[in-house]
Write a structure and sequence with these properties.
- With 83 residues, the protein is mainly α.
- It is 98% helix and 0% strand.
- It has one helix at 2-82.
């Protein structure tokens, strides 16, 4: 039995040594893929933030317009009443 264990350990060591370069290449490719993916996600998130900021600014302007229209309409109704 000890001989079989030694043989299996030797085989295991050889297989691990043979797989190390492949493992390193795979790790490198995975890292590159993650970096590229996160860079694209970052760009998309910046666009989302910019769009939300623009929508907030436009929403404020629309609210201001509604107030002005209401004020002007109120002034017109008052002017018609006095005529």
């Amino acid at each position: 039995m000890p001989e079989q264990t030694n043989i299996l350990d030797a085989i295991r060591t050889v297989v691990q040594e043979e797989n190390r370069p492949m493992e390193k290449r795979l790790e490198k490719k995975i890292t590159e893929f993650k970096d590229e993916t996160l860079n694209h996600v970052d760009a998309v998130m910046k666009e989302v933030v910019t769009t939300r900021e623009e929508q907030a600014a436009i929403g404020h302007r629309v609210d201001n317009h509604e107030e002005r229209i209401t004020t002007l309409e109120g002034g017109m109704n008052t002017a018609k009443s006095t005529v």
